Amino acid sequence: MKRRMFGIFGAVVLALVGTFVLVSYVQGAEDRALAGEKTVKVLVAAEPIESGTAAKELEGKVEFERIPQKVKAEGAVTSIGQLGKRVTETDLLQGEQIVKSRFVEESQAGSATPGSTGGENLLQQTVALEPERAIGGQIKQGDIIAVVGSFDPFDTPAGKTPNQTHVLIHKVRVTNVQVESSPGAATPEPESDSESEDAAEAPSGRFLVTVALSAPNVERVTFTAEFGHLWLAAEPKDADETGTKVVVLDNVWS
User: Looking at the whole model, is its pTM more than 0.70?
Assistant: First the structure.
């Protein structure tokens, strides 16, 4: 009997030792992976966070995570206090970095839910785009998109800037779409079932796309439309937003 008890006790001890060794190895592997990398601490969502959640309600729903500096998202915050009285403009996924651009002032927060046209409490802005800049003309009311901006070189006191491209805003809701037909262009006929296997005819004319934005983002989009180039990209609700950066010729291949 004593021998059996000693055997059970020994098995438990071995299991505990094995677990400790495994955990230590995993933690060591993470440290080795980050060795030589400049790291920073950022706040990430510890669980899914619904749109409209106030910053003051994030306690217990976010946690710190140490990541390489190069993958830190633009506008990532290191404390809930940096968000002030803002609320989430869209749903946040577990593990997603907490960035200011995903929050708006309470007075600007839209009551829309994914799939609705919504954005009643946000500013409505319309931009005119060629079909290739508006998701090939497939854009429609209610879509969720990302807004991308590109700039040609500018002359500044410090010298000429490079060509630059970057995602300006994530998870933007389209509230209206109109087509500005080219003179003499025929209105495309609805695609029939017999023609479904053939490539659809490319639309002609510009697309007038209206989106719901916070006031600061209206300024950014207006500036880019005036002095640069806008592109829209379809962005699913769970699309990964990490890893973006200002792209120039020197880093476009990296």
Answer: no
